[in-house]
Amino acid sequence: MKFIVSSSVLLKQLSAINGVVATNPIVPILENFLFKVDSDREGGPILTATASDLQTTMITNIAVESSESGSIAIPARLLLDTLRGLPEQPITFHVDTETFGTQILTDNGRYKLSGENPIDFPKIPSVNRSLAVELSSDSLLSAINNTVFATSTDDLRPAMTGVYLQLTSANATFVATDGHRLIRYRRLDINSPSDSTMIVPRKALTLLKASLPEGVPVKAEFSQSNASFTFGNTQMICRLIDERFPDYENAIPVNNPNVMTIGRTDILNSLKRIMIYANRTTHQIRLSLESNSLTISAEDLDYSNEAKEKLLCDYDGDNMEIGFNAKFLTEMLGNLSCKMLSFELSAPNRAGLIIPADKEENEEILMLVMPVMLNTYA
């Protein structure tokens, strides 16, 4: 089998799917890209490149010159390292379909590598389409950016290692939680012909975030066990998490009479400075709220470090002190793009809500963060 392809186009497309390839995969064949050339394709010969880790599969189509069809499994890392070092030029692949030896010919070089039998590569999962949704990549990227960072890394709670997606005829709700914080992100410009819920794994969403271009349509298809996202020449298929997601609505406090409105960058920059002085294990900071003023403070008793800053804010409520994990707060506020935000609080031992005061069109964001028990320092 022989085919000719642009080195830069091949590198770009393979880089988009390379994130799936695990460093130490369960099955050695998964260290390879599966190349399949279809010379009889309508519109011209196409090279279909596939990468998989058994849970997630990414497929991309690349236009090539070829008069033969065939397939080969090629070592992903070796091929990518070779392509990164090449200038833009047409390169020719010669594949011996019996021994799976592969030669790459360039303008001034020849590279020989050992491929593997494509039959050993796992079969691409099919998505028996029970539900299909059309959406823009910008909407999907925004949903991923606002939620995926709050997913859990605890494999003992698999339901929380992904993002819960709730589709209705009115909107799409994305929910992520790790037990310490919860993000509910709602898109009013995404809807579904029928109501459905599913949990999409964190790795699949992280790969989508890295490979999704801006301003392109995305076709999302869902079955009982798999999800497929197709955009441009690329498709990603992932296995859904078959677990029950926590009843997140009951975790969101309803009555929060103490409301503080403040500039997002003001409090975020202050938190970043103050958390330097917080305990390195707990990252505990203290928020002291009074009429139109917020005092942020931290103390590390182990090293006798402490810091305090006072900020102006609009606060309506009782004087109160509440502790939070500064690392969680800065990550949450850093993912928002609003200028002003509201903190809605009820008591020092109850969860606090962070809600953008100026909303983007077609989106609603609610962030919940659990407090931490304060030390007794004054």
Walkthrough of the structure:
With 378 residues, the protein is an alpha+beta fold. The chain folds into three domains: 2-120, DNA Polymerase III, Chain A, domain 2 (Roll); 131-249, Roll (DNA Polymerase III, Chain A, domain 2), CATH 3.10.150.10; 252-369, DNA Polymerase III, subunit A, domain 2 (DNA Polymerase III, Chain A, domain 2, Roll), CATH 3.10.150. The chain is 16% helix and 41% strand. The chain has helices at residues 7-17, 76-84, 137-147, 202-211, 264-274, 326-335; strands at residues 2-6, 32-38, 46-52, 56-63, 70-75, 90-95, 101-105, 110-114, 131-136, 162-167, 172-177, 181-187, 196-201, 217-222, 226-231, 234-239, 258-263, 284-290, 293-300, 305-312, 314-316, 320-325, 340-345, 352-356, 363-369. The strands form four sheets. The protein has a nine-stranded antiparallel β-sheet. An eight-stranded antiparallel β-sheet has the order 5-2-3-4-16-15-14-9. Strands 1-6-7-8 form a four-stranded antiparallel β-sheet. Strand 6 (90-95) and strand 7 form a beta hairpin. Helix 5 packs antiparallel against helix 6. It is elongated, with a radius of gyration of 25 Å. The mean pLDDT is 94.
β content, as a range? 35-45%
What is the architecture of the largest domain at the second tier of CATH?
Answer: Roll
- Shape from CA axes? elongated
Return the CATH class of the largest domain: Alpha Beta
User: Would you count the extended β strands for me?
Assistant: 25
Overall pLDDT level: 94
Straight-line distance between termini: 76 Å
> Which homologous superfamily in CATH is the superfamily of the largest domain?
DNA Polymerase III, subunit A, domain 2
Number of DSSP helical runs: 6
CATH fold topology of the largest domain? DNA Polymerase III, Chain A, domain 2
* Total tally of structural domains: 3
Spatial strand order of the main sheet: 13-10-11-12-25-24-23-17-21
Structural class: alpha+beta
Helical residue percent band? 10-25%
Q: Uncertain runs with pLDDT below 50, 5 residues or more?
A: none
